[in-house]
Amino acid sequence: MLKTGRTTMPSPSALDLCAAIDAAASAAHSGAAILQSYAHHRSDLVIDHKARNDLVSQADREAEAAIIEVLRSRTPDFGIVAEETGGTPEGPATWYIDPLDGTTNFLHGIPHYAVSIALVAHAGARVPGPDPLQEDTPVIGVVYDPCREELFTAVHGIGAWLNGRRVNCSRTKSLADAVLATGFPFRDFSFADQYMPMLKEAICITRGVRRMGAAALDLAWTACGRYDGYWEMGLAPWDVAAGTLLVREAGGVCHDMHQHDPWPIGGRVVAGNPDIVEALHGMIAPHLRKE
């Protein structure tokens, strides 16, 4: 029980993560159905430019509306932060929604994009376990790739799955044997002077570097061992929230590049198994400006 003045209040109940993961998966499928309905009629889409190389279409907006409708009806006590309509964190936990991660791929007919939905529980919230959370923590993650019909899911403290089968990060020990994923500066070029030396070094010392253009899938593919590690700068919270939990629940590490925030809410992310993340930090640190 919690005591506030003279009033004794009941302790907040633990978040129902089973209900939340079911709601997130349903919402992801609802959003993806709209995306796929537009996929063969891309020339008819109305496309707006939010900023240089930052595109949005009615497919993004309609998919986001469908996702929000499902989540609000099934989890009305949670806040919502979505790429197109915004929002603020509130309540015991907040949904972070990217209705179409990989918009440029989608608009060019490249079949590599996804719906990404995460639930971030706030400090003080209770999840199954003995103690309240000490810091904001992703507790539900769903990344759905409708082109491959691959549904990546994760639940805090329980595990990560691809289409119902448990996944794990790779066991690669060194960068010399690693295939890495990354993302080039495409919208915010203020960090290009830091990033380009990192990329040059990665090209020289690893087995290969891939840039596919969808951060949520980069993280999901790291969680299931297709990539050994991943780093990127200049992302948004909704790009990485779900993927962060996928990697963590797959036995890996995913955190803020500067190691300040409890999860990469600032959009600078390093991910992979513990050995690869340690090596990535060694590669990145000499080129990274301190904040």
Automatic annotation (TrEMBL):
PANTHER family given in the database record: INOSITOL MONOPHOSPHATASE, INOSITOL-1-MONOPHOSPHATASE-RELATED
Presence of keyword Coiled coil: no
Protein name per Swiss-Prot or TrEMBL: Inositol-1-monophosphatase
Requisite cofactors: Mg(2+)
Presence of keyword Hydrolase: yes
Pfam families listed in its UniProt record: Inositol_P
Database matches in InterPro entries: IMPase, Inositol_monoP_metal-BS, Inositol_monophosphatase-like, Inositol_monophosphatase_CS, Inositol_monophosphatase_SuhB
Enzyme class name: hydrolase
One biological process term in Gene Ontology: inositol metabolic process
EC number: 3.1.3.25
Family membership noted in the UniProt record: Belongs to the inositol monophosphatase superfamily.
Residues holding Mg(2+): 83, 98, 100-101, 239
Alphabetic keyword roster: Hydrolase, Magnesium, Metal-binding
Gene Ontology terms for molecular function: inositol monophosphate 1-phosphatase activity; metal ion binding
Source organism per UniProt: Bordetella genomosp. 4
Catalytic activity, as annotated: a myo-inositol phosphate + H2O = myo-inositol + phosphate
